[in-house]
């Protein structure tokens, strides 16, 4: 008959602790906890940082008269002037033949509102087409003075600009700008009608650029 062995509670507890000590795995040391990430809170400043709401107001005249275009008065006057140039009909030398050809149907200056006029009293553009001699200088100045303001001058060709091939002669004026103010110079000897047409377009641009100076005194 086998003998039964009864272990006391103290012995049983000691045996259990020894088993746990032998069988329990070794634990790695715990890693230090990362500090909490800082997240800035801008909620109290949202009101101050909100962009400004822009309300587009409309002028009173736009409310009463919608579709009306607002432009300066001098721009309207300059637009009317550049679109209705009346050059005076007179020529001094061979450049006048090219000037006459420019007014013919091949180039059709009427589409630009440019109409030749036989009287200086209603003309606003003088085309000096040809050589200006000292004998002709008083007549050129008189015609210029008879033109109403505002008025412009186009120097057409090398002879009118600086004497051209006749600059060595004492009786030739070395440029019509010695007598009257010139706005546009058209080079050539003689210049073709396309060159004079380009001079008219340059004069139209100049009128729009200088619109604020006209009549300013």
Helix content: 25-40%
Number of helices: 8
Sheet/helix structural class:
mainly alpha
**Unreliable spans:** none
Strand sequence of the main sheet, in spatial order?
Answer: 1-2-3
| Main sheet summary | 3 strands, parallel
Residue share in β-strands: 5-15%
What series of H and E elements makes up the topology? HHHHHEHEHEH
- Radius of gyration, in angstroms, nearest whole number: 48 Å
Structural shape: elongated
Mean pLDDT: 80
Termini gap = 145 Å
Count of β-strands: 3
Describe this structure in words.
The chain has 217 residues and is mainly α. The protein has 8 helices and 3 strands; from the N terminus they run αααααβαβαβα. Helix 5 crosses helix 8.
How is this structure best summarized?
By secondary structure, this protein is mainly α. Helices cover 34% and strands 6% of the residues. It contains eight helices and three strands; from the N terminus they run αααααβαβαβα.
Would you spell out the secondary-structure blueprint of this structure?
Layout: H1 9-23, H2 46-49, H3 60-64, H4 73-82, H5 95-102, E1 125-129, H6 137-146, E2 152-156, H7 158-162, E3 184-186, H8 193-209
Parallel strand pairs: 1-2, 2-3
Helix pairs in contact: 4-8, 5-8
Short key terms for the protein model shown above:
217 residues; mainly alpha; 8 helices
């Amino acid at each position: 008959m086998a003998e039964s062995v009864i272990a006391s509670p103290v012995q049983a507890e000691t045996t259990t602790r020894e088993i746990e000590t032998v069988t329990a795995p070794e634990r790695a040391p715990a890693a230090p906890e990362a500090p909490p990430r800082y997240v800035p809170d801008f909620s109290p400043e949202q009101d101050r940082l909100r962009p400004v709401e822009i309300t587009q107001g409309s002028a009173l005249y736009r409310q009463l008269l919608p579709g009306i275009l607002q432009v300066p008065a001098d721009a309207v006057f300059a637009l009317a002037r550049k679109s209705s140039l009346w050059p005076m009909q007179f020529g001094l030398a061979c450049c006048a033949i090219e000037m006459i050809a420019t007014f013919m149907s091949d180039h059709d200056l009427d589409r630009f509102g440019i109409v030749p006029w036989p009287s200086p009293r209603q003309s606003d553009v003088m085309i000096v087409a040809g050589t200006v001699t000292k004998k002709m200088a008083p007549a050129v100045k008189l015609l210029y003075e008879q033109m109403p303001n505002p008025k412009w001058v186009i120097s057409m060709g090398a002879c009118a600009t600086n004497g051209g091939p006749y600059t060595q002669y004492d009786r030739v004026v070395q440029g019509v700008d010695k007598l009257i103010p010139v706005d546009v110079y058209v080079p050539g000897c003689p210049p073709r009608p396309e060159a004079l047409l380009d001079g008219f377009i340059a004069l139209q641009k100049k009128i729009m650029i200088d619109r604020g100076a006209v009549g300013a005194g």
